[in-house]
Amino acid sequence: MKKVKITVMRRANYPDLIAQYENPLPHPCDMEEGQTFIANGWERPAGFCGSAWDSLSPFVLTLACGGQDIYNGWMKNKKSAMISCNDGFRPVSFLLEALEEDAD
Predict the structure, then answer these.
(1) Are 1 and 43 in contact (CB under 8 A)?
(2) Cβ atoms of 93 and 9 closer than 8 Å
């Protein structure tokens, strides 16, 4: 099984939706642009947001198992995917890239 590099590419924030619909949260998102994680197959990397992992994990598993060309030609690199977490108030976009070496 391959390791998968996860890079935080972009964070969005919708203050109008937050003000209208969300209860105040003390610490809603700790992800920072440029931050990277290495997923060892199906394992969630230490310190990685559990909610974001729920959105990304099927794609990480596909890439870790050698799958490629997710969504038929969508990505220039067939061994990658651009996936966002499911937070409708402050979505984060992640670049997933299968690494060449296999996980230990």
Answers:
(1) no
(2) yes
- Phi, psi dihedrals of residue 17, rounded to the nearest 5°: -70, -40
64 near 103, Cβ under 8 Å?
A: yes
Phi, psi of 97 (to 5 degrees): -135, 125
Domain that holds residue 77: 2-102
pLDDT tens digit sequence for 5-51: 999 999 999 999 999 999 988 878 889 999 999 999 889 999 999 99
